[in-house]
C-alpha cells in the first residue's frame, strides 16, 4: 500500500480513484436527502448546509478527477509542489559544453538614458489586433554614443501557443537573465524580439503556412524585415538567432534547420519536432507542408546541413515534450510528443546539443532555470 504522504500527482490509479469519488458523492447526496425530518428547525438547517456542502464537494471532486486524468496524459505537473508553484533550482554547473565567447566589453556610461535596457516595440501588419504589437528589448549598450552605427546580434523569440508578443516575457522571463549576462560580460549585448506564438488568436498554425494563415511567411518576410529596418540589428545569419518555448520551441527547431542560411543557431525549451495541428488546420494541411516542416523527419533521413546548431532543453518527465517513443501520446490522430524519439536519432549528431532533466512537467517553471545557460550556449556562436 502506498502511504498517503507518498501519493504523487502522477500516482497510477489516483485519477481513477477521484473519478470513482466523483460518482460516489452524488450517491451520498441522495442518501442525505433521504434523511429528511420536520421535527426541528435545527435538523432543517443542518440538512440545508449539508446539501450545499455535498454539492460543492461533488463539483470539486469532479474537477479534480478531470484535471488528474488530463495531467496524467500530458504531464503538465509531475508533483504537488509544482502544482502550488514550487520551481526547481537553477543548475549550479553547466549541463552542456559551452566554449567561452569573445565578449565585447562595452561599458555602460553614467549618462546612458537606459542603463537597464529598454523594452520598445513595433506594430506589425498581417496579424489580428491582439498579436500586432511585437515588443523589442534593447540592451543598455544600444544607447551608448560609441555604438551609434553598431548592428547588434538579435534573438527572435517565439512564444508558446496562445502567447502574444506582450505575454512572451511574462511566460518565460528572458530580459532579466539576458541583462545579467550582458552586465557581467558573459555575453555580448544583444537585442530580443518577442514574436507571438500565433498571428490569429485561437488558430495554432505551428509557424507554418496553412489554411490561408501564413505565419511562417509573416515571420520570415514581414516581421524580420521590419525589425531590421526599424532597429540596429544584425541582417546576416551570423548575427541572427531563434528560440522559443513549447510550440515556439518546435518553431525554433524547424527554422534553425529549414532556414539554416538565415539563422546561426537556436534553442528550444520543451520543444517537439514535427507540426501537430488542431482543427481546422488539420483538415487543411498538406503532406508536403508536414514534410517540409518536420525536424525529426530530416534527422531520421540525416538530411541536416552541417552548419546547423540547435540546443534542446527537455524534461524526461514532461509527457508533452519527451513523450514515450514506444507508446507515444496522440492528438487528433497525430503523434504528440516526440522528444525521446528525436533524441534517440539526433544525440550523436554534431548539429544538436541537449540539456535533459529528470524532473518537471510541461510548464514554464520547469524550464526557466535553464534560460541563462541556453543564452550562453548561443553566445559561443555569436549571440
UniProtKB/TrEMBL annotation:
Alphabetical UniProt keywords: Membrane, Transmembrane, Transmembrane helix
Organism, as annotated: Acidipropionibacterium jensenii
Top-rank taxon: Bacteria
Keyword Membrane attributed: yes
Residue runs in coiled coils: none
Matching InterPro entries: AB_hydrolase_fold (IPR029058), Mycobacterial_A85_antigen (IPR050583)
Stretches that traverse the bilayer: 12-32, 52-70
Molecular function as annotated in GO: acyltransferase activity, transferring groups other than amino-acyl groups
Protein name stated in the entry: Esterase
